[in-house]
Amino acid sequence: MGLNVHSATTFPRKPHDMTRETPDKRAAILRAAMELIAENGFHGSPTAMIATRAGVGTGTIYRYFTDKDVLIREVHRELEERMHPILMVHYPAERSLKERFDHFYTGLMRFLLDNPMEFKFLEQFYDSPYGVAMRRDKIFNQKTSEQRCDTVKSLFEEGIAAGAIKDLPIAILFAIFFGTLVSVVRDHTLGFVELDDELIRRTAEASWDAIRR
Amino acid sequence: MGLNVHSATTFPRKPHDMTRETPDKRAAILRAAMELIAENGFHGSPTAMIATRAGVGTGTIYRYFTDKDVLIREVHRELEERMHPILMVHYPAERSLKERFDHFYTGLMRFLLDNPMEFKFLEQFYDSPYGVAMRRDKIFNQKTSEQRCDTVKSLFEEGIAAGAIKDLPIAILFAIFFGTLVSVVRDHTLGFVELDDELIRRTAEASWDAIRR
Amino acid sequence: MGLNVHSATTFPRKPHDMTRETPDKRAAILRAAMELIAENGFHGSPTAMIATRAGVGTGTIYRYFTDKDVLIREVHRELEERMHPILMVHYPAERSLKERFDHFYTGLMRFLLDNPMEFKFLEQFYDSPYGVAMRRDKIFNQKTSEQRCDTVKSLFEEGIAAGAIKDLPIAILFAIFFGTLVSVVRDHTLGFVELDDELIRRTAEASWDAIRR
Amino acid sequence: MGLNVHSATTFPRKPHDMTRETPDKRAAILRAAMELIAENGFHGSPTAMIATRAGVGTGTIYRYFTDKDVLIREVHRELEERMHPILMVHYPAERSLKERFDHFYTGLMRFLLDNPMEFKFLEQFYDSPYGVAMRRDKIFNQKTSEQRCDTVKSLFEEGIAAGAIKDLPIAILFAIFFGTLVSVVRDHTLGFVELDDELIRRTAEASWDAIRR
DNA sequence: CATGAATGAGTTTTCATTCAT
DNA sequence: CATGAATGAAAACTCATTCAT
Questions:
Q1: B206 touches chain A (CB under 8 A)
Q2: For D130-187, how does the pLDDT look when each residue is reduced to its tens digit (9 = 90+)?
Q3: pTM, whole model, 2 decimals?
Q4: Which residues in B lie closer than 8 A to residue C5 (C-beta atoms)?
Q5: Is residue A1 part of a domain?
Q6: Residue C130, CB, less than 7 Å from strand F?
Q7: How far apart are CA C202 and CA B95, in angstroms?
Q8: Mean of pLDDT over chain B
Q9: Which residue intervals of D9-96 are DSSP H helices?
Q10: B165 CB contacts (<8 Å, ≥6 apart)?
Q11: What pLDDT, in 10s, does the model give residues C3-40?
């Protein structure tokens, strides 16, 4: 009101330096949210339940995340961040297109098979308003925060340019890549198939056949 | 309600006669539910809203469906039933494997593209607890009520036997078929690609390349 | 979605014909709200408590009033409506300015003294954001729904024109009229004074002295 | 904080020494509370917000005030204490009743007009449970801590004795005095009238007419 | 003394389901 | 059969207060 000598007068709804504080609670909340959403979907995961499973008070969630929406998006973000280095380890940057393609395909599939909870969460997430909004954002705002996609995208573009991959819109190639992969993993988690190394390899082969020229 | 092309397939599942005079409230409720769920998701479709759009009283829903869950599952079941004959029309039973495969692939894709409401509902459904439960049921109880799948399944089996299709588990072939198809249609509805006849054909081609030997 | 044959598809959040339905619950809720707010203020009147006192379920409140805000404003509106005819009974339209002034002054005071609950509610209301917003509306939007004020206003204007009342802004005259009146009634409810007929008459006299020329 | 003209009146009420070195956190909290309550009401002034604006930790508030209630009552008390000397400056003790009355009336009005924040706080306060409780206390416990009132009271008593002021209960005279004054100032802050020196004088005149014989 | 992270009781609001008419 | 008013359990979110550091 003009007289305000007291500098920082705006009320911080989530100040949180977080520089090096106890990341315990935050991590516990994120994990609890992911587990519950994977198990019961968004509907079956009220904040109170998340708090209980995380071993914190309900209010505590709101110290770390402004919103339930923010919490959920954060679960996703951290998951993506966790996945990226795993996929990039031993990335055969110098090898053939096919080998790099296989690296991603089998790497991602193995990660999802080894982390069924994470996979279930991602399934819930991508087909929810959250995931759709995120993908839309990514397309229209060029928010290329998800490096994993970028790398695969470059791979496709390089392949198209080299005449090794079919000249289809990137979105279609992505649909073939992720659509098949996710469906296969889902079938595995539901018990339709038992994916072993050999089957993973042959599935990757089939997907490669789909996109290669 | 005058638009109900499919009222033929709607017959009383509940113990009330409805021989001829009752206006088809049941169908109206099913249609309203599908529309609303497609538009707003399960969250955005309270029973009162469904009733209003169907032009019936709230309580009426519970005369035809024991539960909201039952209603939703019924919407799905009727939709599947509606799709099957559409896909079987002009089925080239006597032509090559490839041609029959194409018939299904492009037929299903075209149906989904032409009926975005139905597609959105199916998306909502499959990734919800409802869909997961249904698929789980289908595995463990062998309830193969979905004839559409059966036909495609026979196609795959025939192809494998003839050495024309890769000898992969049927589930994997399904994943390649439906996983890609659904992802492509979704990208279209989200505006990521514009699917025209040519692109549909080329996508079908790619999927065929994936599974053919 | 274009195909909507079903006419009234917009979801009515509070349809409510109310033409001749049971006004019981609505009235009970209004009364309960007024009582609680009078007794405990807005803070001390959670919806659950209002529902309990009204003898209805919590949800029922939301069938009759979209909002807690709407409920509160409605309590006020009905109260005003209830007061108006009381003040207009035996209004000496043909008598002197002074007599008509006295009629309002003592009439309003008597009503407030006889209805301490209503008075307490009005006190809470006028000094809350609700009341301020309402008065602001009334000034700027010319929403002259409150006839009581209008009549008093005309009285003042007539008096000014006739040279019988001081030529002060209407707002000031209102402040003298209502400000004093409300303070006096408040003092009575708090036990500062015991207002009897004689004292009411003399207070009216004093207020008249304040505004008369 | 550097603006604290009134830090003189602030001395340790709690059992901590604060001889000189401690920055006056107590005063900062009081000021922050008053500002926020004036701006946003009691609802819009959570303790965390008050602490932030005061530049202290949340917990600190509870070192100086046992309770939020106590804090608010203390804000009021200090404000009253601050107003009193201002009104007593140049008090024309030797002049006529009318002149002394005018001194208070215009002095208080001017103070409230010049300190809209303080006025808004007082408005919030008097009509809240806090203010009501306080006034009730004052009646029943005869805690006449408010000297300002006492002086005005003496003025009225003197006037009555001298036959210059109507022989009405003191409470009624107070109601006329403060009720009108506060209503007028409120109308000004709400933009209903523009109070200038001339209008203030004439309003004082009207109030005097109300109480004089 | 000062802090601010943690808490959980309490608040408003929604909605699937029932049942008297 | 059809209705829709009534319900209350449950959900997201807030905030005064405490207490370990």
A1: yes
A2: 877 777 776 666 555 555 567 788 899 999 999 999 999 998 998 998 899 999 999 9
A3: 0.82
A4: 1-3
A5: no
A6: no
A7: 108
A8: 84
A9: 25-40, 47-54, 58-64, 68-88
A10: B97, B156, B159, B173, B211, B212, B213
A11: 333 333 334 444 444 443 456 899 999 999 999 999 98
Query: Distance (Å) from CA B185 to C1' E6?
Result: 47
D-chain CB neighbours of A7 within 8 Å are: 55
CA of B149, C1' of E15: distance in angstroms: 36
Q: Residue A135 sits in a domain of what CATH number? A: 1.10.357.10
Q: Which residue of chain C has the CA closest to B47?
A: C11
Chains A and C touch (3+ CB pairs under 8 A): no
Q: Is the CB of D13 under 7 A from strand E?
A: no
Which domain does B44 fall in, by range?
A: 6-211
Q: How many angstroms separate the Cα of D71 from the Cα of each of B131, D27, D138?
A: 56, 11, 19
Candidates D139, D166, D172; nearest CB to C190: D139
Please name the amino acid found at residue B52.
T
CA-wise closest residue to C169 among D113, D116, D202, D205: D202
Per the rule left: phi > 0, alpha: psi between -120 and 50, beta: everything else, B55 is left
How many separate domains does chain C show?
1
Span D75-90, pLDDT tens digits: 999 998 998 898 888 8
Query: What secondary structure does DSSP assign to C74-93, as a single string?
Result: HHHHHHHHHHHHHHHTT--T
For residue C1, being part of any structural domain is answered with: no
Is the Cβ of C163 closer than 8 Å to some Cβ of chain B? Answer: no
How many Cα neighbours within 13 Å face the side chain of C67? 5
Instruction: Give the H or E element holding residue C152.
Output: helix C147-161
Please give residues of chain B from 23 to 62 whose alpha-adjacent beta carbon (CB) lies under 7 Å from any atom of strand F: 25, 56-60, 62
- Among residues B206, B67, B56, B87, the alpha carbon closest in space to that of B155 is found at B87
